[in-house]
Amino acid sequence: MEKFVVWWKRDKRYLLLVKAVLMGILPILCCLVTCAAQGKTIGDVYLPNSEWNDELFYFKQVEGIVHYGYPQGYFGFNESHALKLSFAAWSPVLVFPWVVWGLLFGWNLLSPILCNILLLTAAMVLFVCLVKPSWRQLGVLTLLFCLYTHFVRYMLSAMPEIICMSLLILFYAIAVNYLNREKTYKLVLLFLLGSVLTLMRPYMLLFLLLPVYFWVRKAGWKGLLGSLGVIAVVGAGYAMTKRYLGAEYFTPLFFTDWITTFFDQGIGAGIHNFFGTLYWMGREFLNHTRQGFQYGLASGAFFGGYLVMMAVLLWQTMADYLWLRREKRREQERGKVQEDEAEHNKVKNLLMIEGHLALCFVGMLFALLLMYKLTEGSKHLLTFMAVGIFVISLMKTRLYKKAVLMGAVFAYLYSYMAVNPYDYQVPFENQDRAAQLSQWEEAIAEELSLVTRDTPNYENVVIWLLNDNTPEGARTLNWQLLYALPRGFGISCCDPGYVTENFDRLQSRYLAVVPEGTVDEMCLEAGYREIYRDKDMALYERASEFQSMQ
Fold it and tell me: Second label for 353, Cα 20 to 30 Å away, from 105, 236, 343, 539?
């Protein structure tokens, strides 16, 4: 007991516990306040009222994994499917925390939200325990956390951004702790987390460079060779995951012509294409950024916050580097050893963290310009900014200039200019939508039954027609009603051109179409069995040969 008391009092660990508890409360407190401001609670969050259709895919895939080991029908686009099993275009590694949650506690519409809150809470607590920030640093972190409203928006969603943010916060917490006291197991954990993040999203390979640097600094050539081996294994793992467990998207997920042009057309053409792409995409990037500051365009707001934070990281990295050089020169001139070695080591360690994150920001900016569609790729920058908040909170500062700058940018872009409900509004339950979804669930519960042999298969797939032309004009399918599909069913998101051109060669058993649209008329003319319809969606069973298999 006496040893425990000594341990408890050493370095005021009781204060560390208080800090950890306060930071652990922060995520759920922000969620509660955001919901209460609109007269709601966290329990009122309702995914089928969201406009983010990626959530439908993530939710239903996890549902299939939890109940059957993998979805029994294919998830894909224009009836594409993975070579193995039944996942969509994105790595299934992305959602493994949700799968664990579903296996332990069950899976329902609130499950991803509760899991997100728990993950970020755990990341906050571990950050405090590993980094041991001061009260001033916690104050900066709290301010920026509250003003960066994307934390709350993505916690209250079925998007995997919070999973990536939480793991990356833990990654940097371990990195800081490693620099304070270097232990091999910490380096192993950094490699493990960096590898998992890379398997989730390939650009996360940028973060794996930090443990590589640590290992090379510690072991020289052995560390370099070992690191190259790890990177090769992780790269091969991602390539295999993408090849065998990923369905083909409508368009390529990554543009690679900036590389292939060198091989197809020569070095000159490759250089011209490379810099030409940077120029034109850079112009578009800056145009989006301007619109973000002027009108609140979401992608531009993401770009604007990203650029400001990147500038802060680069500035502080250079400032710390120059400070260390200046101090070293002064000590040499005096012929003395460093007078405050602890302070020098602290700045040196933080310089490595700041410098690496700044490098990641620059690398991701080039990746965005060269490889991604700007509007779709913009949300990937949110994870970088989220972890940047934690690094900025550790910076040595006077008058809190950097925190004030970032806080002002966040408040302006993500609160004052957050004018588009699609990007910023938390989806709360709507009685009409809930009643409509309940009607669909009841109507199709006995009509759609899983075929459990030779799974996954197209017999357990519903085509989601994106939109169609009707007598009243173009209409988008009310896809939120697809949450009513029985668990285990796959969804193939198809554009109308694909469906009409391949109508007689479709493979999926069921079609969810726009009422009174072109495809709806084609289904009626073909004699497909109508399962249920309302003003927003009509569901058909496609062919008689499937009906005979029931």
Answer: 236
Q: What does the alpha-carbon distance between residue 60 and residue 53 come to, in Å, rounded to a whole number? A: 11
Return the DSSP state at 45: B
CB 542 within 8 A of CB 512: no
Report the 10 Å Cβ neighbour count for 115: 25
List of E strands, 221-324? none
Residue 428 identity (one-letter amino acid): F
The dihedral built from the CA positions of residue 483, 485, 488 and 494, taken in this order, carries a sign that is negative
- Say what angle helices 135-147 and 13-36 make with each other, to 10 degrees: 20
Structure-token pair, residue 301: 């707001």
The per-residue pLDDT for range 407-461, each reduced to its tens digit, is: 999 999 999 999 889 999 999 998 999 999 999 999 998 899 899 888 999 999 9
Question: What is the reported pTM?
Answer: 0.93
pLDDT digits (tens, 9 = 90+) for 200-242: 999 999 999 999 999 999 999 999 999 999 999 999 999 999 8
Helix (H) or strand (E) holding 491, with range, is strand 490-494
pLDDT of residue 549: 47
Tens-digit pLDDT profile for residues 124-157: 999 999 999 999 999 999 999 999 999 999 999 9
Alpha helix (H) residue ranges in 110-204: 111-131, 135-147, 150-155, 161-180, 184-200
Are 80 and 57 spatial neighbours (Cβ–Cβ below 8 Å)?
A: no
Sheet holding 461-465, edge to edge: 76-77, 490-494, 461-465, 510-513, 538-541, 529-533
State which H helix or E strand residue 106 sits in: none
Residue 394, amino acid: L
